[in-house]
């Protein structure tokens, strides 16, 4: 079965069922990763080498298992579809973003703050309407890259083992990749590996956003603004996305009680509830474009 059809099948499963409500494999993996961290980083005293060892134990055996299962006759293709379905989160992203936009449009700022708190790590209790919309729009653009497009990319490159390796690595970065006393040394490997795995996908996503929106403005924002962002991959994605939408993102945000003066991204008016929906539309259109390219490419190469 062609790569394009396998990818389409996984995206269709996500659209129909969303993330598994019970027995999600990433929940079990997260529990396993937490035990590994306690073992290798007891009291926050783990070194970089401990973090590398923990990453290897967490990621490589499961990636190898995915490769072995994908080689099985008759059902190997199904392993790939299920692996990709478990890795992407397009419907889940919309299920988190939509209630924020709904609450803002209904004038319920407290509910909007509560809902956006599920999407971002910054403090949301004091955000005004524009800041809530800005936070949600940024999250849609960035998580569209991490939770959707990068999974599609690694599945296209390396099949089931590729998407499993990527999703597990990305999960470890979310758990261990903090710059604080506990994870500064131990989580270094998880953060750097995730940066490497996201480098190419992030730039393809930035290009996708640009092509589907205000192209010249998106490319200009990407070139000028992305280098100022602290993340080498989130910068291009969010700068291009903000430029494509014609909206102003970035700016000051409070994380764990500390105010961070982040660079401005994009050009245009302050974000609103409408921009949250426009960002989701941009991600969905990008997925359609990628699927079309994969299907057409497979047909031409057949």
From TrEMBL:
Example of a GO biological process term: cobalamin biosynthetic process
Subcellular location: Cell membrane
Pathway involvement of the protein, from the record: Cofactor biosynthesis; adenosylcobalamin biosynthesis
Keyword annotations of the record: Cell membrane, Cobalamin biosynthesis, Membrane, Transmembrane, Transmembrane helix
Biological role stated in the UniProt entry: Converts cobyric acid to cobinamide by the addition of aminopropanol on the F carboxylic group.
Annotated InterPro entries: Cobalamin_biosynth_CobD/CbiB
Any GO MF annotation of the entry: threonine-phosphate decarboxylase activity
Keyword Cell membrane among UniProt keywords: yes
Residues annotated as transmembrane: 52-69, 74-93, 147-166, 282-301
Membrane topology: Multi-pass membrane protein
The family this protein is said to belong to: Belongs to the CobD/CbiB family.
Membrane recorded as keyword: yes
GO CC annotations, alphabetized: plasma membrane
The name this protein goes by in its record: Cobalamin biosynthesis protein CobD
Gene coding for it: cobD
Species in which this protein is naturally found: Metapseudomonas furukawaii
Short name of one Pfam family: CobD_Cbib
